[in-house]
DNA sequence: CTGAAAGCGCTTACAG
DNA sequence: CTGAAAGCGCTTACAG
């Protein structure tokens, strides 16, 4: 294939074809289609019309090479597959991102990694290859090492949640605490005094927030938690934690889980053990997943809107890459949705 | 910013820097790092060493512009969000893709769309912008219009499953039928005579395959299906179908669902109606999800390996883009995993 | 308001 | 075996 021969039979039109057909230079075509000042209106219209007739679209790769922008955003998922697979958060979150990227001709580059080393490599590769104009920083962690990493790599980012340290990036926040607080009040109002929490992975900030909100709400009502158990957010550990609570000294009459999958596996453990839900133990999930609506009984849970979160984060990240800064965004807080897995506390029994 | 000034303070090294430092032309550097013939071994080694010292990586965008290859693969998801979110197939499938892309320095471009028009636009945009070197064709449909579309767009593809028409693309096949057949035999062996199927979306080939396998296996054992109901694969329709079966003239003693989420919502409906599982009705899912292991009772289901499917598809697509052709791949078939949601048929009762 | 030219950082025939 | 040059298809100061 000679370098002079067009690669495609008819040859997709290039900016040169448009310039020739419009009788102007290719530089002018570029100015015209990019709405830059310094082009007579009549000329602009003519160029646009010719471009349209020829069916010309600027070649993205060439534009990328010139402008150093890729029109792509990156998302790196680091999670145990068992956990990602059962967790409906990400599909909805990504769909939300897509709603805004699509209409902007942007694209999402996805990376799924297993451990922290692979995660760091993923960010470094995205940066070195200039694959993306910015990234979403999800599953924020305590003292998150990715923040200095992204600063070092000079890659713009939007944080999903409020970081616990300083970070030179805008954040999009969805308050978990309000829902947990409401759940605890709901349970206390139903007469529960022995309430336990099956928390998530304490390395993750949102797991910490949920746990702290639980502890504070319980204290606020003059109680102490019956137990608080950390997990990795997996159904397996949710089930194990539930079994441990059942076997413990004081059996809780209500359990607040840090996500729906664990609440569902907990429900399974309770029912397998012959414990009536909500007759003997009330169960509260977190997420407001589709599955939670279809269990027996349907789960009381705390609902957030991951799709809106994705959309807001994408808008913020695009603003950041375009202008160099973007304001923080506060989304509607997660809220309690009461279903039939919670009910009045059983009459107190002597141990 | 003058066009002569380097964009980054120290300036990431370019091929020119390497050529200068190694005392050769940049063309030779390119030949050396790409392992092309016509470079003296000693020269090649020297170039490589210098490149390494300078920390040079070829600029991906520039390479893309020259070679017209993007080192990226595309996946377009068109599904109702309610369904995607509850379905753990895609996270695992994408993780499988990533395992092979990552080690090849490739990247996955993801698009999530709602309807068929948006889907077509997504493929057209990927092609027009030359975002990807090839795409995964998932959720194969009857007489799939995407096949001629991709031919028209001249974009290589790998089919996930065997198409029902001709297609000039390799396919990676995972046989659904064997597992469904085994499930029916399992139920018949347990004494069931009234077996129903809650199928998936009949527009999708895999839903059709599962349904046909069900019907054939039932016939093979001299029975007729009690009922076969189509759905859209959502938990909601799975629940509705189950309620309809309960209310029907002949109540089935066993139900085979086309996916786990519907089996789970079906289980919820049965239990809410006071129907004992498996005492009165046996339930079989399809997918082998994590959730199915944690329900009460745990689900008998049909397990496949979506992660391996993703990895095999990625390997096939890379082979195709590299060499212009790739052989079809046949994966291990889905297999029955028996748990406690299936049991002996209840004694026959008079209606 | 417009044109001509250089530049983005690679790859690839073509000469020597 | 190596060098010099053209090409990929855009964008962007710089002159006029």
UniProtKB/TrEMBL annotation, chains A, B:
Give every HTH lacI-type domain span: 13-67
Q: Give the record's keywords alphabetically.
A: DNA-binding, Transcription, Transcription regulation
**Protein's UniProt keywords contain ATP-binding:** no
Superkingdom of the organism of origin? Bacteria
Q: Name one Pfam family in it.
A: LacI
User: One MF term from GO for this chain?
Assistant: DNA-binding transcription factor activity
UniProt keyword Ion transport, yes or no:
no
InterPro entries, per database record: HTH_LacI, LacI/GalR-like_sensor, Lambda_DNA-bd_dom_sf, Peripla_BP_I
Name of the protein described by the UniProt record: DNA-binding LacI/PurR family transcriptional regulator
- Source organism: Microlunatus antarcticus
């Amino acid at each position: 294939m000679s370098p002079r021969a067009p690669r495609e039979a008819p040859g997709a039109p290039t900016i040169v074809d448009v310039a020739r057909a419009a009788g102007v230079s290719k530089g002018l075509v570029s100015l015209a289609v990019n709405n830059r000042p310094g082009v007579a209106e009549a000329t602009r219209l003519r160029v646009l019309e010719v471009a349209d007739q020829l069916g010309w679209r600027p070649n993205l790769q060439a534009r990328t090479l010139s402008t150093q922008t890729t029109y792509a955003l990156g998302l790196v998922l680091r999670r145990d597959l068992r956990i990602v697979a059962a967790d409906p958060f990400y599909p909805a979150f990504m769909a939300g991102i897509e709603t805004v990227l699509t209409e902007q001709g942007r694209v999402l580059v996805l990376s799924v990694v297993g451990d922290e080393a692979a995660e760091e490599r993923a960010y470094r590769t995205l940066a070195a290859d200039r694959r993306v104009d910015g990234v979403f920083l999800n599953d924020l962690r305590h003292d998150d090492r990715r923040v200095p990493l992204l600063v070092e790599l000079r890659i713009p980012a939007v944080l999903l949640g409020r970081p616990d340290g300083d970070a030179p990036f805008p954040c999009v926040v969805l308050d978990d605490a309000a829902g947990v607080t409401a759940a605890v009040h709901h349970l206390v109002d139903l007469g529960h005094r022995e309430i336990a929490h099956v928390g998530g992975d304490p390395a993750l900030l949102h797991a910490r927030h949920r746990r702290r909100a639980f502890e504070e709400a319980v204290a606020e009502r003059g109680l102490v938690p019956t137990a608080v158990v950390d997990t990795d957010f997996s159904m397996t550990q949710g089930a194990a934690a539930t079994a441990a609570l059942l076997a413990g000294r004081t059996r809780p009459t209500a359990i607040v889980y840090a996500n729906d999958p664990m609440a569902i596996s907990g429900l399974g453990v309770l029912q397998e053990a012959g414990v009536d839900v909500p007759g003997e133990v009330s169960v509260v999930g977190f997420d407001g997943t589709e599955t939670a609506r279809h269990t027996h009984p349907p789960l009381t849970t705390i609902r957030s809107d991951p799709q809106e979160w994705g959309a807001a984060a994408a808008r913020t990240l695009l603003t950041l890459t375009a202008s160099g800064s973007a304001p923080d965004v506060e989304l509607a807080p997660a809220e309690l949705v009461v279903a039939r897995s919670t009910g009045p506390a059983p009459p107190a029994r002597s141990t």
